[in-house]
């Protein structure tokens, strides 16, 4: 009779960017069980965010460094719903452009780390090289590489100038061309396929029961993307695959990068001169639920306010809290050396989750 | 149906799940004051947000939704840590170390605790 071994994988591990622990139960090299632990860095931001609704735009953008603009957008959308203000179309498209730019940087980072976890260092470096022009462009447009400070309750604070629009289009053209070569590696390379195809499968039923979202859900056949509601005028259709393995999760991200490039082009074409924001006066009252499609999936904010500067409750639900839990269904049956690639293919963001 | 304070809400979610195309978005808890907590189960049906609410007392032993959605377990563990609710068969210790000096930081009585 074989004896199982318990291996603590993390919280400090070379393939994880942030502290995450997976207690693996192994039978020889085969994983037979897993328990996920995190919570090493909880910052209590929900409590801090409730202190003053006017200052919370600044703070909520700092929940995460990779999807910062999504946090401020969904927070502002929550407030706009409470103040009953309609954001001008011009500002809506600027938000869409910046969200899609940040999705490109996030997905290329996720793919790069997947390549690194596979030991494919050159692919990792090339993906980071292609990410950099988008980061610089965001810096030029917003004045910041990571925390843009573009959002305000009622719209955005700055416009994208005609020169910057041209620069955006030219950067997207170059990115599309160069990224096609790197996407070809994911599509054709035998090593990439051997490390990912059929590994860490999450079935559609398991995807439902773990309530996973984003590319993890769409790679398992769940055809849901919040952009279906938010981008109705941008002709958006979600990218969905059925395999549910690490390869499918990565390929959803590869295809979504091209989709984001297309959405940015469409949104630039729809930009018309007009007001950037509308004023929201007084203090918020009532409760609101808002959500956007962040790079890792549905980002949800619940806010309850009682007509004061202080908010009664701010609740943030990030995609990783559900996606990372599904690892307990993905890793059993796989070999121990596959665990880093499977985990990174989920693209966990502990920073968001431990807000 | 078991006799927990939130059993009616859980049963309602089971009925909704049977009708198909449901997804659990999150579980939110808020301190309503006077020892009462409001649990809000947020669900999605084909892009539409639906809520199921339940009012419970802090000392109530609540029924877990994890038998229906495994993804609910971490959401409930979070509520245990941050608000001090009790869910049947679910342990806290996800975000706050058991035995640490920080206890139920999101309760109104702990408003000024940093």
General description of the model:
The complex is a heterodimer of chains A (355) and B (114). With 355 residues, chain A is an alpha+beta fold. Chain A has helices at 45-49, 56-60, 68-83, 89-118, 121-142, 162-188, 190-196, 204-209, 214-218, 227-230, 246-270, 320-323, 327-330, 339-345, 350-353, and strands at residues 5-9, 21-27, 30-37, 151-152, 155-156, 285-294, 297-306, 311-317. Chain A has a single domain (5-353), classed as Cytochrome-c3 Hydrogenase, chain B. Chain A has 15 helices and eight strands. In chain A, the strands form three sheets. In chain A, strands 1-2-3 form a three-stranded antiparallel β-sheet. In chain A, strands 6-7-8 form a three-stranded antiparallel β-sheet. In chain A, helix 6 (162-188) packs antiparallel against helix 11. The radius of gyration of chain A is 21 Å and the shape is globular. Chain A starts with a strand and ends with a helix. The mean pLDDT of chain A is 91. By secondary structure, chain B is α+β, with helices and mostly antiparallel strands. Chain B is 21% helix and 32% strand. Chain B has a three-stranded antiparallel β-sheet. Chain B has a two-stranded parallel ribbon with strand order 4-5. In chain B, strand 4 (61-62), helix 2 and strand 5 form a beta-alpha-beta unit. The termini of chain B are far apart. Classes of the chains: A alpha+beta (355), B alpha+beta (114). Chain A binds chain B through residues 37-39, 42, 44, 46-47, 208-212, 222, 224, 228-229, 289, 291, 298, 300, 302, 304, 312-313, 315, 317, 321-322, 325-326, 328-329, 354, and chain B through 23-26, 28, 30-31, 40, 42, 44, 47, 49, 51, 68-75, 78, 82, 93-96, 105-106.
Please give the order of strands in the largest beta sheet of chain B: 1-2-3
- The global form of chain A is globular
For the residues shown, what is the average pLDDT of chain B? 86
Shape of chain B: globular
The CA-CA distance between the termini of chain A, in Å, is: 45 Å
Number of strands of chain B: 5
Average pLDDT confidence of chain A is 91
Give the domain tally of chain B: 1
Number of helices of chain A: 15
Strand percent estimate of chain B: 25-35%
What gyration radius of chain A follows from the Cα positions, in whole Å? 21 Å
């Amino acid at each position: 009779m074989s004896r199982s071994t318990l291996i603590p994988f993390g919280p400090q591990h070379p393939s994880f960017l942030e502290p995450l622990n997976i207690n693996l139960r192994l039978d020889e090299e085969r994983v037979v069980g897993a328990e996920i632990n995190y919570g090493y860095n909880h910052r209590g931001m929900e409590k801090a965010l409730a202190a003053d609704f006017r200052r919370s735009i600044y703070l909520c953008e700092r929940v995460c460094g990779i999807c910062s603009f999504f946090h401020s957008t969904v927070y502002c959308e929550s407030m706009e719903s409470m103040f009953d203000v309609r954001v001008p179309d011009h500002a809506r498209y600027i938000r869409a452009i910046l969200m899609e730019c940040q999705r490109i940087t996030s997905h290329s980072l996720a793919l790069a780390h997947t390549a690194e976890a596979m030991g494919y260092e050159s692919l990792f470096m090339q993906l980071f090289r292609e990410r950099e022009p988008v980061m610089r462009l965001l810096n030029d447009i917003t004045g910041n590489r990571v925390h843009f400070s573009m959002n305000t309750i009622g719209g955005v604070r700055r416009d994208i100038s005609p020169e910057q629009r041209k620069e955006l289009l030219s950067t997207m053209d170059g990115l599309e061309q160069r990224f096609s070569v790197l996407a070809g590696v994911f599509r054709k390379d035998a090593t990439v396929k051997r490390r990912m195809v059929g590994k860490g499968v999450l079935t559609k039923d398991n995807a439902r029961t773990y309530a996973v979202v984003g590319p993890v859900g769409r790679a398992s056949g769940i055809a849901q993307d919040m952009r279906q509601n938010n981008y109705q005028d941008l002709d958006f259709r979600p990218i969905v695959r059925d395999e549910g393995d690490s390869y499918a999760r990565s390929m959803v991200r590869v295809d979504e990068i091209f989709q984001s490039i297309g959405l940015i082009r469409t949104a630039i074409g729809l930009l018309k001169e007009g007001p950037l924001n509308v004023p929201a006066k007084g203090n918020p009252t009532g409760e609101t639920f808002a959500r956007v499609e962040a790079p890792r999936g549905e980002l949800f904010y619940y806010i309850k306010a009682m007509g004061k500067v202080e908010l009664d409750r701010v609740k943030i639900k990030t995609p990783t809290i559900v996606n990372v839990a599904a690892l307990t269904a993905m890793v059993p049956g796989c070999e121990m050396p596959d665990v880093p690639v499977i985990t990174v293919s989920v693209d966990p963001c502990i920073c968001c989750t431990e807000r | 149906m078991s006799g927990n304070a939130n059993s009616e809400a859980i049963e309602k979610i089971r009925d909704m799940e049977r009708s198909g195309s449901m997804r659990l978005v999150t579980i939110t808890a808020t301190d309503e004051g006077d020892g009462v907590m409001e649990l809000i189960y947020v669900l999605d049906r084909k892009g539409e947000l639906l809520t199921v609410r339940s009012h419970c007392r802090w000392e109530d032993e609540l029924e877990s939704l994890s038998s229906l959605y495994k993804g609910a377990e971490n959401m409930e563990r979070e509520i245990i840590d941050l608000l001090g609710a009790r869910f049947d068969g679910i342990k806290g210790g996800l975000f706050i170390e058991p035995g640490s000096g920080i206890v139920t930081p999101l309760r109104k009585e702990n408003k000024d605790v940093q």
